[in-house]
């Protein structure tokens, strides 16, 4: 490949302190940067940014995969995206019942603002993002 050719795919690597979650070639990645969601295609301009709570979406051909992510960093190069996440979970890893319970507890705490308001706000955001990612793999239990 010459310097004028764009790469055909992106090597996506997602790791947490506990495990390597993803290492594969993909066509496209969308992830939650601190300034908003970033769409990354092969040939993207180099970038280093922080991640916030949300969903990572990556596509390989017609196959689309989703992950829950909470905090971390991402390095984008024209042919590689490396995600170093504090927490990352596949839809199958997510305990939807526990996420709903965390959402309910956080919503209750947010009704009476005190010193734990920000902790409850983050817990609510994490629970909602987990439920959103889990719903992409299977319908949520009632």
- SSE order in H/E notation? EEEEEEEEHH
Mean pLDDT: 90
| Shape verdict | elongated
For the terminal residues, how far apart are their CA atoms? Answer: 52 Å
Q: Indicate the structural class.
A: alpha+beta
Low-confidence stretches: none
- Give the helix level as a range of percent: 25-40%
Q: What is the number of domains? A: 2
Predict the CATH topology of the largest domain. ATP Synthase, domain 1
Main CATH class of the largest domain: Mainly Beta
CATH homologous superfamily assignment of the largest domain: F0F1 ATP synthase delta/epsilon subunit, N-terminal
CATH architecture of the largest domain: Sandwich
**Helical stretch tally:** 2
This entry's quaternary arrangement is: single chain
Radius of gyration: 17 Å
Number of strands: 8
Which range does the strand content fall in?
Answer: 35-45%
How would you characterize the largest beta sheet?
8 strands, mixed
What's the quick description here?
The protein has helices at 96-110, 117-137, and strands at 10-15, 20-26, 28-33, 36-40, 47-51, 54-60, 63-77, 80-89. It is an alpha+beta fold and 142 residues long. It folds into two domains: 10-89, F0F1 ATP synthase delta/epsilon subunit, N-terminal (ATP Synthase, domain 1, Sandwich); 94-137, Single alpha-helices involved in coiled-coils or other helix-helix interfaces.
Structural notes for this entry:
It is a single chain. This protein is of the alpha+beta class. The protein has two domains: 10-89, F0F1 ATP synthase delta/epsilon subunit, N-terminal (ATP Synthase, domain 1, Sandwich); 94-137, Single alpha-helices involved in coiled-coils or other helix-helix interfaces, CATH 1.20.5. Helices cover 25% and strands 43% of the residues. It has two helices and eight strands, in the order ββββββββαα. It has helices at 96-110, 117-137; strands spanning 10-15, 20-26, 28-33, 36-40, 47-51, 54-60, 63-77, 80-89. Strands 1, 2, 3, 4, 5, 6, 7 and 8 form an eight-stranded mixed sheet that branches. Helix 1 runs antiparallel to helix 2. The longest helix is centred in the C-terminal third of the chain and has 21 residues, at 117-137.
């Amino acid at each position: 490949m010459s310097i004028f050719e764009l790469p055909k795919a992106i090597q996506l690597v997602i790791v947490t302190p506990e495990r390597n979650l993803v290492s594969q070639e993909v066509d496209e990645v969308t992830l939650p940067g601190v300034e908003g969601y970033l769409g990354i295609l092969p040939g993207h301009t180099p970038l280093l940014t922080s991640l916030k709570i949300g969903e990572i979406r990556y596509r390989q051909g017609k196959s689309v995969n989703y992950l829950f992510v909470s905090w971390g960093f991402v390095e984008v190069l024209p042919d590689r995206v490396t995600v170093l996440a504090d927490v990352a979970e596949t839809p199958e890893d997510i305990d939807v019942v526990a996420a709903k319970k965390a959402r309910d507890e956080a919503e209750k705490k947010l009704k009476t603002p005190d010193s734990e308001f920000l902790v409850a706000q983050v817990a609510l955001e994490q629970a909602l993002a987990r439920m959103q990612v889990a719903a992409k793999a299977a319908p949520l239990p009632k």
